[in-house]
Amino acid sequence: MNLLYKFIKDHRIAKGDVQNDLAMCLYCGKCQRCCRPKAITVNQKEKKWEWDSDKCVRCGHCIAACPVKSLRFVK
Ligand code: SF4
Ligand code: SF4
To answer: What is the pTM of this model?
Structure first.
């Protein structure tokens, strides 16, 4: 297995998945704007929040940016 691929895979497993408590979410889009790999899509009108596990590099920037702390890593 390619070493870089293995590192990314291990990092993803170690961190877990990004989960959003939608009852708290304001659909403000701050998480989407700070996500460089574009793993988050927010539709404020339709109150939709989507996260793409394959694109996410588990950097945690979205979690730090969320004003209501509705995001977290879950293993
Ligand atoms: S930053 Fe937080 S409140 Fe805003 S859309 Fe993202 S998860 Fe929802
Ligand atoms: S952890 Fe990083 S890459 Fe993953 S959704 Fe949040 S900002 Fe994007």
So the answer is: 0.93
Q: Which residues contact 8 (CB under 8 A, 6 or more apart)?
A: 57
3-state secondary structure of 19: strand
- Report how far residue 50's alpha carbon sits from residue 42's, in angstroms, rounded to the nearest whole number: 6
Task: Report the alpha-carbon distance of residue 35 to residue 46 in Å, rounded.
Answer: 20
Judged by DSSP in three states, 52 sits in: coil
Give the pocket of ligand 2 (CB within 6 Å): 18, 34-35, 37, 39-40, 51, 56-62
Residue of 28, 32, 43, 50 best suited for mutating to test ligand 1, as the one with most atoms within 8 Å of CB: 28
Q: Tell me: the pLDDT tens digits for 13-47?
A: 999 999 999 999 999 999 999 999 999 999 999 99
